[in-house]
Specification:
- The strands form four sheets. The protein has a three-stranded mixed sheet. It has a three-stranded antiparallel sheet with strand order 4-10-9.
- α8 packs antiparallel against α10, α8 packs parallel to α18 (359-376) and α11 (163-174) runs antiparallel to α12 (183-204).
- It is 49% helix and 8% strand.
- With 407 residues, it is mainly alpha-helical.
- The radius of gyration is 21 Å and the shape is globular.
- The longest helix has 32 residues, at 232-263.
- A hairpin with a 2-residue loop joins β6 (304-306) and β7.
- Pfam families: p450 (PF00067).
- InterPro entries: Cyt_P450, Cyt_P450_B, Cyt_P450_sf.
- This is Cytochrome P450.
- Belongs to the cytochrome P450 family.
């Protein structure tokens, strides 16, 4: 891989190495230069930022907008979500971002998250009970996936019978099937129909759940022009984002963390002996193999420099969380899994005003899921050769397709 200064804007780098061996590829990129021109996740050129200090600063830089209206025409092709799913926090800057985040942040207070600890523990124990007699499992499908989807669906008040549908829609968005180009469009349409119907049902018969609370905020705000307001599209988009992000990031965090422990049996044994260290270990798992490899795409509202590289206004900027978290200038011996290292400073959950809203819930779910698993099955091991374990083929997220285990 070459430096941006050598390649220029008309010769974006091939991203195949980032799929095949991402951390080695990012190490080469960091050594070659701070910012590189690549082919982005949508097939369009983008600027990739790789070094920790630059990524951290850029995450909090108000000149880097999440609003696609600041993109140069023709520069970016995203999911093409309809407005009812697209008016979410991942596409907004202040003041809209501030207004909506203020309305939903109460759902993720430390007290409310702590109240979920016992239910999450019960869900984990039930899933492990169902697996125990078999002596083996596909951990993503049988445990890492069902746990967060059950938690977030219970939080939102989504019927259990619709959860399998959501898993299929989520996969279609994150890892599109090239042989089925219409699958993503179909998934988006099905999601929109689902959320619209669910909100209508909750509005008619509210329940004791977060979605009913958000509907009440929406409906009450319509009569209070002076207060914070939530449009119908913003309401639907919030439900979509909470469910989508609450599932995707957590299933990948649990799967990646378990694989890291299986790759480091001495760390697994130490954590089993000292379960009180689980919370600190989760921070290291987040740094070591973060579920979000890239931050949400940004667009400069003016020409600016990152790492001494000039980036024109409106062009796509990708901030590599995966690379920043393995920058040796910030983390000593970054390729070493070390749950005892100082846990602060990783960027796996973001930085600045867009810091992950559901971070406390993701941390708690991972801590419980991993602790329950390694306690229940002391002889946990991979059930396939290590080179048969496959990750999703995307540079956007870092997650496993499957993780066969036995005990």
């Amino acid at each position: 891989m070459q430096n941006t200064a050598e390649t220029g804007p008309d010769a974006p780098l091939d991203t195949a190495p980032l799929l095949d061996d991402p951390y080695a590829a990012y190490a080469a990129l960091r050594a070659a230069g701070p910012v590189h021109r690549i082919t982005g996740t949508d097939g369009q050129p983008a600027w990739l930022v790789t070094r920790y200090d630059d990524v951290r600063s850029a995450l909090a830089d108000p000149r880097l907008s999440l609003d696609r209206r600041h993109a140069t025409p023709g520069n970016y092709r995203g999911f093409s979500l309809p407005p009812a799913l697209d008016a979410n926090l991942l596409n907004m800057d202040p003041p809209d971002h501030t207004r909506i985040r203020r309305l939903v942040v109460k759902a993720f207070t430390p007290g409310r998250i702590e109240a979920l600890r016992a239910p999450v523990q019960r869900i984990a124990d039930d899933l492990l009970d169902a697996m125990a007699a078999r002596g083996r499992a596909e951990l993503v499908a049988d445990y890492a996936g069902p746990l967060p989807i059950t938690v977030i669906c219970d939080l939102l008040g989504i019927p259990a019978e619709r959860r399998r549908d959501f898993l299929a829609w989520s996969d279609a968005l994150i890892t599109p099937d090239p042989s089925r180009p219409q699958a993503m469009k179909e998934a988006i349409g099905a999601m929109l129909e689902f959320y619209t119907g669910l909100i209508a049902a909750k509005r008619a018969e509210p329940g004791d759940d977060l979605l009913s609370d958000l509907i009440a905020v929406r409906d009450d705000s319509a009569d209070d022009p002076a207060g914070d307001r939530l449009s119908e599209d913003e309401l639907t988009s919030l439900a979509f984002l909470i469910l989508f992000a609450g599932y995707e990031n957590t299933v990948q965090l649990i799967g990646n963390s378990v694989l890291a422990l299986l790759d480091h049996p001495e760390r697994l044994a130490a954590l089993r002996r000292n379960p009180a260290e689980l919370a600190a270990a989760v921070e290291e798992f987040l740094r070591y193999d973060a579920p979000a490899a890239l931050a949400i795409r940004r667009f400069p509202v003016e020409d600016l420099e990152i790492g001494g590289v000039r980036i024109p206004a409106g062009e796509s900027v990708l901030l590599s969380i995966a690379s920043a978290n393995h920058d040796p200038k910030r983390f000593a011996d970054p390729e070493r899994l070390d749950p005892t290292r100082e846990p602060s400073g990783h960027l796996a959950l973001g930085h600045g005003i867009h810091y992950c809203l559901g971070a406390p819930l993701a941390r708690m779910e991972a801590e419980i899921a991993i602790g329950a698993l390694i306690s229940r099955f002391p002889e946990l091991r991979l059930d396939v050769a290590r080179d048969e374990v496959r990750h999703r083929r995307t540079i956007r997220a870092r997650g496993l397709i499957s993780l066969p285990v036995a005990w």
